[in-house]
Amino acid sequence: MSISFKEKLDYWIDQSYSDKLKQREALENAHGNFVEPHINQLITVNTQLLPTMPIAPHGFCIVSGWLVLTLIYCVWVRSKPPIK
Predict the structure, then answer these.
(1) Domain range annotation of the chain
(2) Which of 27, 54, 56, 82 could form a disulfide with 60 if both were Cys (CB 3.0 to 4.6 A apart)?
């Protein structure tokens, strides 16, 4: 009985693919078993709900307020009837 080249190639590809799947599974298991608990132990999670520092700087709020006032003024001036 003679085995064709295509059958040999298919067998070799299947073997290398299954070897790669086994290596990947071993790496995933290694990460889950050894690396992840160590990382979880090192990471501290802040459980405070509100941040301690302001979200936007004080100057940003002032500039935003002036821009809103300017836009309101522009809309108000455009809505007035023209002077005759």
Answers:
(1) 5-46+53-79
(2) 56
